[in-house]
Structure formats: C-alpha cells, structure tokens
Design brief:
Blueprint lengths: L4 E8 L5 H14 L5 E8 L4 E4 L3 H6 L4 H4 L12 E6 L13 E4 L10 H9 L8 H8 L1 H10 L7 E5 H6 L1 H11 L4 E5 L9 E3 L2 H12 L4 E6 L3 E10 L4 E2 L3 E4 L7 H7 L3 E3 L6 H17 L4 E10 L5 E7 L9 H9 L3 H19 L2
Parallel strand pairs: 1-2, 1-5
Antiparallel strand pairs: 2-3, 3-4, 6-9, 7-8, 7-9, 10-11, 10-12, 10-14, 12-13, 14-15
The protein binds adenosine-5'-diphosphate (ADP) and magnesium ion.
Length: 362
C-alpha cells in the first residue's frame, strides 16, 4: 500500500467570506478519504495570522457569529492551537516539508486572488486550484472581462472607472457611462466577491451613490449594463483538458443575488440541472470551458452566465476560481448531478494539483 498523502487544508482568511470558508473547510475535511489522506488543518484568522496545531477550525468557528456559521459554538472549548505571530507566510509549525499537497479552501481576496498562490509557489508545493495568474485575473472583474472579450465570449456592455479619475471629474465619468450604458446599471468594485459593494442603480443620483459605495472597496470600479436575465452556472474541473458539468440555475429570492441572499437569508433556490433546452446547455458548457482556458485556469472554477429572459441571449458574467465548497454548494452539487460525488471530486482535485505541479516543473 502506498503511504497516505498529507494534505494541508487551509481555511478562514481575511476576506468577507471567512465564514463560508469555515463551512466549506468543515465539509471538505469530513469528506476527505481517511484511508488515503492525513489532514493537516491550517487556519488563518481575519487579521491574517496563521494557526496550526490543536484544532484551528474549531478555534476559528468559536469566533464567528453562529448565525453565519449555521451552528452554535461549543461552550467551554479551548482549542490548544498555536497562533503563529507572523502573518502572510506559511508557519513552520505546519511542518511544510511533510505536506504533499496544499488545499486552500479560501474564498475572496487573499485566498482566491493569487496572493496565497504566490506563497505556495515560493514554498514549492503542489496546491489545489488556479495558479497566481488565473486566480488574480479571476478575481479582477476588469481584467477578467478583457480576457473573456479576447476569447470572443459574449458579455453585457461595460465600462471601467478609475477612482482617482472619478474623484477628479465625476461629471465626466457619469456622462461617459450614460453615453455607453442605459439604466439600470450594476456598479461593482473590481476586486471583491459575494456581491459586497455592488449596487443596481436606476438614475444619475443612484449611480453617484453606487460609485461612492464601490469606491469604498476598490480603486477600480466596473459599471455594467443591467439586464433581465436568468442566472445559470456551470462547474469546470480539470487542467489542460477541462470538463464542464451540467448547468444549474440560481433562483434569487431578492431583486438580485445579493450578499444577504447569499449568506444571511439563504432563500435562494438552485435548480440542477437548469430547465433549459439541450442546445443552450451545450453552448453554456462549451463557453464555460473557453472561459476557464481564457484565464488559464487550473483545477476548478465555476462559470456564471446570464441568459436574457426576452431574447434568450447568453452572456458570461464571471468565473469564480474557488467557489463555495460545502456539500450543499452549487459547485459540488453540479458535479454530483453530472456523476462525480463530493469525495471523488476532492480526489480528482488533489490529483490535478499534483499533475499541474509536475507539468509546471517539467
Ligand atoms: N449586468 C447585470 N445585469 C443583471 N444582474 C446583474 C448584473 N451584474 C450582476 N447582477 C446581479 O448581481 C449579482 C452579483 O454580481 P456578480 O458580478 O456575480 O458579483 P459577485 O462577484 O460578487 O458574485 C449577480 O449574481 C446578479 O444577480
Ligand atoms: Mg457572482
């Protein structure tokens, strides 16, 4: 028998999706086949400190709002977990040299945006998911759109706004936006996620307020043409020959799929497979693979589309390079409906991490 692989599972992190990461990590750690893997949990606090030893997942769970986590903290639990004082690099106590693969179960900035992937590259270890470039491009709505456009993927009309330029001459920015786009528009910080800082605006006054809001999060702001569309998602798995899952549809409970809907209210429904015709489904699956390749993706990605209600036109919205990964999340559900179980998905992702590492170091 071959020796068990030691998997460093990293979770928590400094983004707004800290709680989601904890939920995803709990599910991942429960599902990893104990016959094949030894799990080494590595936590990152909201402040960016790394935690190893003891039970860092429990230690982090105890700190978050039970409403967000979906379960009560256990009273009296003191996790004997070492907080590593230095932030921003892999702690020595994780005994890196003994790890075979890193599995960052992190969403959003500092997890899904290439920064931590750079640390893994420096450490010289295989890791699950996209590399530095793909992760960074996938997190930046401006560059992501440029990459999709270059690959010939259809997108709603959009404009990029620089915060400094807007502060200098807001009127000129509003005029440019109104000349290119019609209301309603969607205003988004370029680098975020979870719908944070996003607003749907119907007028000049709302546009100004929306930009001010987004400018609180980022130097660069994307403004898009708003459309009335169904939201359909496709999961992608693989490296150089990625495969696409069946499409699933998101049925948001609110006006749009906003932060409250995603994480607080949980009233959004998913329909898998999506109730769409076979031709549209095939097109979406092809486009998802094109999008994944357009950013040079690796491992996994969830590609989100709009299907306009009136015209049935397809537009790509975005790619998420580390989508939610609880057993109830769309990404694993989409694969389950395509014939790949949650546990098998993890096996495949760990194999893909090693494959990509070897290919890069060939
Ligand atoms: N151009 C648009 N037209 C219509 N709805 C949109 C548009 N852009 C975003 N939305 C709505 O806002 C949600 C969040 O936008 P998205 O770009 O996916 O941001 P995030 O990266 O935070 O998920 C989408 O799921 C959708 O409901
Ligand atoms: Mg989205």
């Amino acid at each position: 028998m071959t020796e068990k692989k030691r998997i460093g599972v990293i979770f928590g992190g400094q983004s707004g999706e800290h709680e989601v990461s904890l939920k995803s990590a709990r599910a991942v750690m429960n599902a990893l086949d104990p016959e094949k893997y030894t799990v080494v949990p590595i936590g990152i606090t909201r402040e960016g400190q790394w935690m190893t030893g003891g039970d860092p997942l429990l230690a982090l769970e105890q700190r978050v709002d039970p409403k967000l986590l979906g379960r009560e903290p256990q009273a009296g639990v003191v996790a004997e977990t070492a907080l590593v004082a230095s932030s921003g690099h892999l702690p020595e106590t994780a005994n890196l040299a003994t790890l075979d693969v890193l599995l960052p179960v992190l969403h959003g900035p500092f997890g899904e945006d290439g920064t931590i992937q750079g640390v893994f590259e420096l450490a010289g270890l295989p890791y699950v998911g996209c590399g530095v470039l793909a992760a960074a491009v996938g997190m930046d709505k401006g560059l992501m759109k440029a990459a999709f456009a270059a690959a010939g993927l259809p997108q709603v009309p959009w404009q990029l706004v620089n915060r400094k330029a807007w502060e200098g001459d807001p009127e000129a920015v509003y005029q440019r936006l109104e000349a290119a786009l019609a209301y309603p528009m969607f205003v988004k910080p370029a680098n975020l996620g979870s719908s944070v800082g996003i607003s749907k605006v119907q007028s000049r006054a709302e546009l100004a307020a929306g930009i001010a809001e987004a400018a609180g999060y980022d130097r660069r702001i994307v403004v898009e043409q708003g459309i009335d569309a169904r939201e359909v998602e496709v999961a992608v798995l693989g490296n150089d020959e990625p495969q696409a899952s069946v499409p699933g549809e998101v049925l948001p409970a609110n006006d749009f799929y906003d932060y409250a809907d995603k994480y607080l209210e949980g009233r959004t429904q998913f329909q898998i497979p999506a109730a769409i015709d076979a031709a549209t489904s095939a097109t979406l699956r092809e486009m998802a693979v094109v999008a994944f390749k357009a950013i040079d993706g690796a491992g996994l990605g969830r590609v989100d589309f709009f299907v306009e209600r009136e015209t049935a036109a397809i537009y790509i919205n975005e790619i998420n390079t580390f989508p939610g990964f609880t057993a109830m999340s769309q990404y694993p559900k989409l694969w389950e409906a395509t014939g790949v179980s949650y546990r098998e998905l993890l096996d495949r992702l760990l194999d893909l991490a090693i494959e990509r590492y070897r290919e890069r170091h060939r």
